[in-house]
Amino acid sequence: MSSTAMKKKVLLMGKSGSGKTSMRSIIFANYIARDTRRLGATIDVEHSHVRFLGNLVLNLWDCGGQDTFMENYFTSQRDNIFRNVEVLIYVFDVESRELEKDMHYYQSCLEAILQNSPDAKVFCLVHKMDLVQEDQRDLIFKEREEDLKRLSRPLACTCFRTSIWDETLYKAWSSIVYQLIPNVQQLETNLRNFAQIIEADEVLLFERATFLVISHYQCKEQRDAHRFEKISNIIKQFKLSCSKLAASFQSMEVRNSNFAAFIDVFTSNTYVMVIMSDPSIRKCPTEQKHIHTGRTALITTRLFVCFFLFQHLQQLSSTSVMLGNTLRSWSGWTAPSTACTCECASSLPPPPPPRIPPSANQSTARRRHVADSQLQ
Q: What is the dihedral angle through the alpha carbons of 214, 239, 235, 88, rounded to the nearest 10 degrees?
């Protein structure tokens, strides 16, 4: 691992069976939800180093939640576990029958954090919310959130409701990782400038491996507050489907009469998504010359701004990035068509020709024989 890598220690804790390893496997190891059922219990502490945005490395400590291990964390392993922690993620099973014991262990974690890493950020995930009746979810989560924030004082605690079966898991982890990204304010400023110059409605930046949202800009309020996480979930599942067919996901375009959405590789560590609804994109054939002229200027501007944003992203990455791949598809953004395409499809083998059943071949030969006899 490069000596210039920026390591961030992340503790993932909670009672055994709360779902810690399942969510880690979905986010960082490309598992799908149904496959997590075969994961066994974590023994003691599992360490993993996840490279994120090039030179940012998440040093993830997945701590087994059996009672024996939990007691050891607070006694003999206390300093080793809780020293130099950037983020504590504590996972609660919403249907746990030992809520009082869960809260006791959580308070013990907070005491150890205050002693060894007082500046650490604390996140609580109220997990398996899909098991709660839909009309009760808001009420139950609000009650748990109030209890956890009260117990966490003087530390600030951010709570999320999560489930491996929907987009809430991506919402929580995107927010957590966002806290670890260096110079994130400068990144957001560059992203806003980029969006304003190309007159995009929204621009999103995704981490390439996990498809977590790193940053975004929107020029107006949108009705669906969870659309980013839904996109992360959908594209991640689509990438996994492509990999099963020995194909790699490269880019996607969705266009109709109302908007155009583009997802493409931006740097070696990121994808970018741009959503545009400018009605001037759609022009009648008599105005194609106007489109071409404006398009050239727009592409030039995009190249400049992409390079500007790329310079900042390159500071976060220790790997080299080729701008050619980053900017390859910008010039096609204004094509007036209605389609949904994905470049991974181009790498798939062509479908085999349809097979004609033997009975059909015999019937055809019989008809030809009769026709020849009549002609003679």
A: -40
